[in-house]
Specification:
GIY-YIG endonuclease; 3 strands; about 20% strand
Length: about 100
């Protein structure tokens, strides 16, 4: 049996990450409505969407996490989110890659 000096490791929480990740994600509901967002805590943010705590996704019916990308810094994630929300070639390219459009 290994003994860890760090209490978090003893409790099974695992080591802390070396750096914080940022996520750009795509939600889709059962009527094919889409939402693009970013967060440093994807699990928490997705839970907020499911609990209707996010104004822009309250009208989505059963949103599901369809896709996400991970970035090492906030500026890269925010830039990617902005490019996708401009609904230009980056957005169309992503939809094609995910086979959500022809």
């Amino acid at each position: 049996m290994k003994w860890y000096h760090d209490p978090a490791l003893r409790e099974g929480l695992g080591p802390k990450p070396l750096y914080k990740m940022y996520y750009v994600y795509l939600l889709i509901d059962d009527k094919n409505k889409k939402y693009i967002g970013y967060s440093h805590d994807l699990k928490r943010r997705y839970t907020e969407h499911l609990q209707n705590k996010v104004y822009t996704t309250k009208r989505m019916n059963q949103p599901r996490l369809f896709y996400y990308e991970a970035y090492k810094n906030k500026s890269e994630a925010k830039l990617r989110e902005t490019k996708l929300k401009q609904y230009g070639s980056a957005y169309v390219g992503l939809l094609k890659r995910l086979k959500l459009t022809k």
